[in-house]
Design a protein that fits this description.
Oxidized Rhodanese, domain 1
Amino acid sequence: MTSDTLTKEQQKAVEYFEQKLAYEMGPGLLKSAVESKQAITVVDMRTPELYAASHVPGAINLTLKQLQESTSALNKDHTIIVYAYDITCALSTKAALLLAKQGFAVKELYGNFAEYAAGKYPLEGTSVGATCGQGCG
């Protein structure tokens, strides 16, 4: 099937998934971006306790409430990569939407922290084997 033969609904689905892919980053690509020192800022949306225990190298910890109050900790020249607990958590999606509305280039880590940690990618923190924990809001 070509785009000429798709129904309106099918074309909407194609556009949705193209957009979705443009604004997500998988754990392997995030690891590469961090290691190659790309112009990114990684934002961990989880609790400060879970962040301290284990997080993506170089990530900063901001809550959704903190982002709603101020984005001064973020560089508009960087792409902001947000993540929260796991695939079922909408915190990172809410943060990405808020940041996009404020003019930031933003992507969401696909699968959030749980997927990154499960991939055995590098972690920083006091207990680098920590899980994603509970508390998604």
